[in-house]
TrEMBL record:
This is Helix-turn-helix transcriptional regulator. PANTHER family: BLL4672 PROTEIN (PTHR35010:SF2), BLL4672 PROTEIN-RELATED (PTHR35010). InterPro entries: Cro/C1-type_HTH (IPR001387), Lambda_DNA-bd_dom_sf (IPR010982), MLTR_LBD (IPR041413). It comes from Promicromonospora alba. Residues 31-82 form the HTH cro/C1-type domain. Pfam families: HTH_31 (PF13560), MLTR_LBD (PF17765). It comes from the Bacteria. PROSITE patterns: HTH_CROC1.
Length: 289
């Protein structure tokens, strides 16, 4: 069996074992198998359906490291599986000098247990690695966006913007904290091409980012109040907290509402109606993670 055929077989097996709910997608409708459809993997990995088909059939023989990284993240591969993916594709396995998007099993279990709160998991460059259905219902379906457009730093400074409002003071704190995180990540991973590209593209696309980056602003994450202007349930005033994952660069962003408040009631309603009423949340003032 050739390497490309083995790669295709491995991709099909990983796709078949991945349940939609595990990657933040609705699992309703008639399915021939429990795993992901090619169209769903295409959305998650920001690749065309035709390219997924050619990979699985062994007709696309030289996937780039960027493609492999997207597939590994979308399929939730373990460290060993991710290494095997690169070997099958004939690409060097990323070393410790690159940003990791591997989510430990304990973090996955935590996410499953917090299914009533909108949350996302982000890597050291603040790329969105994982999200739950509540996060998609609150802020819009991220599968409709490219990987770059899912990054909250990119969305804040460049767009497309979230439908979120926050005070100028909180907005300034958010920007300082995120720029500080990017600067620290670049120092830890100076050879990561994706991270370097993100920083340079941000500097080119946003004069505000470039000014603050060059000025060396420094900040830290604090609990933040944000108003999400939701088209179905109305405005929700929520607390946004950033939780660090010990032993990794991952960060979990969680939205919660005060107990007994109208916002908590709206959040529960949002959990009931889910993403079926949404598509993408309409654009508004920037500032969401």
């Amino acid at each position: 069996m050739s390497g490309s055929t083995e790669l295709g077989s491995a991709l099909r097996a990983w796709r078949d074992r991945t349940a939609p709910a595990e990657v933040g997608l609705p699992s309703g409708g008639v399915r021939r198998a429990a795993g992901l459809r090619r169209e769903e993997l295409s959305q998650l990995a920001s690749l065309s359906v035709d390219y997924i088909v050619r990979l699985e059939q062994g007709r696309a023989t030289s996937p780039s490291p960027q493609v492999l990284s997207s597939l590994a993240r979308a399929l939730r591969l373990s460290d060993v599986e991710r290494e095997h993916l690169y070997v099958l594709a004939g690409q060097p396995v990323p070393g410790p000098g690159h940003v990791s998007q591997v989510i430990p099993p304990g973090v996955r279990r935590l996410i499953d247990q917090l299914d009533g709160a909108p949350l996302s998991v982000n890597d050291a460059a603040w790329n969105v690695v994982l999200w739950n259905p509540m996060w998609a219902a609150l802020l819009g379906d991220p599968t409709q966006l490219s990987e770059r457009e899912r990054n909250p730093i990119w969305r804040h400074f460049v767009g497309p913007a979230y439908s979120v409002q926050q005070s100028p003071e909180h907005g300034a704190r958010f920007e300082a904290a995120m720029i500080t995180d990017l600067r620290a990540a670049r120092a830890r991973y100076p050879a990561d091409a994706g991270l370097l590209s993100l920083v340079e593209d941000l500097r080119s696309a946003s004069a505000d980012f470039a000014r603050q980056w060059d000025a060396g602003v420094v900040g830290e994450h604090v609990s933040n109040h944000k108003t999400v202007l939701h088209p179905a349930v109305g405005p929700l005033v929520l607390d946004c907290d950033v939780l660090a994952v010990p032993g990794s660069d991952l960060r979990i962003v969680v939205y919660t509402a005060a107990a007994g408040s109208e916002d908590a009631d709206r959040l529960r309603l949002l959990g009931t109606i889910g993403t079926q009423v949404l598509g993408a949340v309409s654009a508004g003032p920037p500032g969401a993670r």
